[in-house]
Amino acid sequence: MLAYIALRIRSTAWLLATLILLALSGCDGNAAKPPTTLERVQEEGVLRVITRNSPTTYFQDRAGETGFEYELVRRFAEQLGVELRIETADNLDDLFARLNQANGPALAAAGLVASAGRRAQANFSRSYLQVTPQVIYRNGQRRPTRPEDLIGRSIMVLKGSSHAEQLAELKRSLPALQYQESAEVEVVDLLRMVDEGQIDLTLVDSNELAMNQVYFPNVRVAFDLGEVRDLGWAVAAGEDRSLLQEVDRFLAQAEQNGSLKRLKERYYGHVDVLGYVGAYTFAKHLQQRLPRYEQDFKKAAERHKVDWRLLAAIGYQESLWTPDATSKTGVRGLMMLTQNTAQAMGVVNRLDPRQSIAGGAKYFALVHSGLTEDMEEPDRTWFALAAYNIGIAHLADARKLAKAEGLNPNKWLDVQKMLPRLAQKQWYSKTRYGYARGGETVHFVRNIRRYYDILNWVTQPQLEGTQVAESGLHVPGVNKTIPKEEPSQL
Ligand code: BLG
């Protein structure tokens, strides 16, 4: 028995010694090497991402969480096969502090410029968007055209931003330059403050202006301050590059397969599609005209089970929310009803905006429900818009053409390619219903989708039915409502 115990003690001691030796010599991989960031994320099955709550990054809309950074990082998490957990920082200093905390989020996806000053706080991925810093001023004020013109004007930028870095740099050569940094505001607040004349100037990135121009009709670009810069996602400064390498691979792929381009177009393409003038005209009309018809859109939408924002978007495309609009062909009113359609929908006076909206809503709901059962959303809505504009008969022709080409007649992207053919003799001569201006219908649907996107951003679900919603529209990401109705400017 004693011998047995002695043997046990000896063997335990030997085992311990062996383990210590192994650990010291690094032979035992598990004990010596901690998991990489990527392995940790995969083991936990969760990707924690820190971002900012703003229209260009992450916010809530009617359908739930959205935003450019959010959409992109959601796809990345999907590809990794892990759950995405979003955290929001109060300001940029807070963001970098939390990223660098032990047990902090693994990744920052927040429209961050990979600036020299930030490289001490974070390691950046490859670029997914190029932006230009722009000086913003209010229309009607003296326009600055070069850095010297910034002296003597009240300027505010975000604390901890790359713009604050730029101004600090500029101040070295222009000591008289004064500016304020604030950790209490977001980019939308800065633009609003310029729009309302509370500050003279601010600095924002071109993508942020592109996204927000439609909300702030008075803001204008004074000049570009400096070179084009890269936006990147970031990990904490001390972190290994395993996760970043995966991010780089994902971003390269998104660039190659066009998904990144589509996302940019969706979020930042307003100014491209509407044009600069179109974007701020829309902003002006949003403030001055829409409030007059908002209740009528909402009532008609409720009656016909359609989203009121979609009806409003149709109304804007048709008439810029002008009740007495008339086309060359005698189509009339805010929703541009033809004589026949108006009659069929029971509209007596097409120039009465309430009747026009009610008739347009009824007609839209009718064509929407009349489409073939196997057509799915959201394509179904785009087809219904096309039918609203060109009629179901011509739309059926375009769908037949698509089928003949081996395309899918239930996919809007496919049928959209066929619609312009309805205006070309070689094609329309073979269709049942003949010539139609199908190219216009493609523009019609594209524009409405753009307006609809914007209307979704400026209206928030949680505000509906509240006092705030009744007093005007809401800009996502900020506690600010656009004031209701100004004197008529029709
Ligand atoms: C639409 C009708 C459809 C009709 C098509 O025309 O009007 N929609 C409405 O009235 C809401 O009902 O389909 S059909 O009844 O099956 O034939 C085709 O006729 C209106 C379109 C026409 C267009 N805007 C709504 O989108 C228009 O105004 N075109 C003329 C432009 S201009 O005169 O060249 O400036």
Q: Would you mind describing this structure in some detail?
A:
It is a single chain. This protein is an alpha/beta fold and 490 residues long. The protein contains 21 helices and 15 strands. Strands 1, 4, 5, 6, 7 and 13 form a six-stranded mixed β-sheet that branches. Strand 2 and strand 3 form a beta hairpin. The chain is globular, with a radius of gyration of 29 Å. The N and C termini lie far apart (106 Å). The structure holds ligand BLG. The site of ligand BLG has 18 residues, from helix 14, helix 15, helix 16 and helix 17.
Short structural description:
By secondary structure, the chain is an alpha/beta fold. Helix content is 49%, strand content 14%. It is globular.
Please name the defining characteristics of this protein:
single chain; 490 residues; alpha/beta; five-stranded mixed sheet; 21 helices; 15 strands; globular; disordered N terminus; disordered C terminus; binds ligand BLG
> CA-to-CA gap between the ends?
106 Å
Q: Could you list the spans in which at least 5 consecutive residues all have pLDDT below 50?
A: 1-29, 461-490
Averaging pLDDT over every residue, what do you get?
87
- Category from helices, strands and their pairing: alpha/beta
**What is the number of helical segments per DSSP (H or I, 4+ residues)?**
21
Record the SSE blueprint.
Elements lengths: L1 H24 L3 H4 L4 H8 L1 E7 L6 E3 L2 E3 L1 H13 L2 E7 L2 H8 L7 E7 L8 E3 L4 E3 L1 E6 L16 E4 L3 H12 L6 E3 L4 H9 L5 E5 H7 L6 E6 L4 E8 L5 H15 L2 H10 L1 H19 L1 H15 L3 H12 L19 H6 L8 H18 L8 H12 L1 H13 L7 H7 L6 H4 L9 H21 L8 H4 L1 E3 L6 E3 L7
Parallel strand pairs: 1-4, 1-5, 9-10, 9-11
Antiparallel strand pairs: 2-3, 5-13, 6-13, 7-13, 8-11, 8-12, 14-15
Helix pairs in contact: 12-13, 12-15, 13-20, 15-16, 16-17, 16-20, 17-18
The structure holds ligand BLG.
